[in-house]
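Quick illustration, no need to memorize.
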Amino acid sequence: MKESQIIKEIPLANTESGIITIATVREPYGEESEPVVSVGIWLNKSSDEPDWKVHIPVDSLDEVIAALQEAKRTL
């Protein structure tokens, strides 16, 4: 059974009402599928679905976090 939990909502910089959501999703693709972290980006929070969404498998999470930190250092 798909179960999601919002961890954090972050205002999207340079927008009036955009947000970034970070959520955990258990069984996102059906029974016994591996959990993911879902990152959603809304340019305008009034819509029901995000403009962009990515699911990151838990097993890849540490490497993705490290790559994001490296990207931030290069900017």
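The chain has one helix and four strands.
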